Give the backbone structure.
Amino acid sequence: MSYSSRIATSRDKESVSTLCSRAMGEDDYVIEILDKTISAGGLFLALDQNRVIGIANFQKVSSDGSAWLSMARTDPEYRGRRVAGYLQKVIASRARQEGIHELRFLVNSSNTPSIRSALRGGFRPIAETAHASFFLEKTRYGHIKKARVRALSNSETVSIMSGSTYLNKANGYLAYGWHFEKASASRLEELSTNGKAYASADQDSAFLFGCAEDWDPDRYHAEFFILKGTIKRTLEIIKEYGASLKLKSIGTFLPYNKYLIRSALNENSFKVDPWADHGIVFGRKC
């Protein structure tokens, strides 16, 4: 079957929303952020005639010249008909035109059809992860006014990066916000300069802390990535820091390691999110 593609505009919002509801259910998070996603100009549509049958979002990661693919959805009637693979090819062509050298995306290990599509499209696994979340507003952390952390200097951050077991377990990839990028000294310096790198007062723990999300005013969520420290102690410090910012929830992509995951669950009361309880990051050169 021959498909066509184009980038979504505001006129496509209703059709895309219907597709998401059919593919994932009416509570699909993509529906809540469609205005923001469409306005960013990277939401690709797969079309059968004029019918929207699939979507995938394309976001440049300027720090390492890659791009992140997300929000892949296929109409249930078209599953098994290589809609996702078609969009991957379209986006790879666009990426080459824009000088992007690699595409990456995350798939849960239970999503066999998407993994098969990724492998057919020339993507290969490059890292494994599990996403864990903690809800601050429902715990004793809500009263904390000041966390015991300090900002890291550029040189401190780079030094910590070079010996980070967390980065090593993640195959050298850094989860910042909702995407993965290759860690580098220049990127860590940039994040430190922008006030995103922190250490505990005793300097035994270090982590990156992203900006709070603004697409859902009732959530007040932020993502972080651990660079250094024991998992139990470091997560406790990050909880305190998140509470001091009056966040409602925090989350992180942990390297997929049974000890780290078990500690986060049992000792720090995080929950592993089912959409990435064993996530696989795929990458492909353009």
Q: What stands out?
A: The chain has two domains: 4-100, 131-280. The longest helix spans residues 83-97.
